[in-house]
Amino acid sequence: MATSLDILIIPTYDATKIAILDNSIYDPAAVNPSLEITVSSFDPITLVFTPNAYNVYDSEDLGLTLTGDTLIDLPDGVYTIIYSANSASVTKNIMRVDKLQQKFDEAFMTLDMMECDGALKKQAKVNLSTIYFFIQGSIAAANNCAIEEANKLYVKAAKMLNSFLRNNCGCTDNNYFINFY
Question: pTM score, two decimals?
Answer without folding.
Answer: 0.82
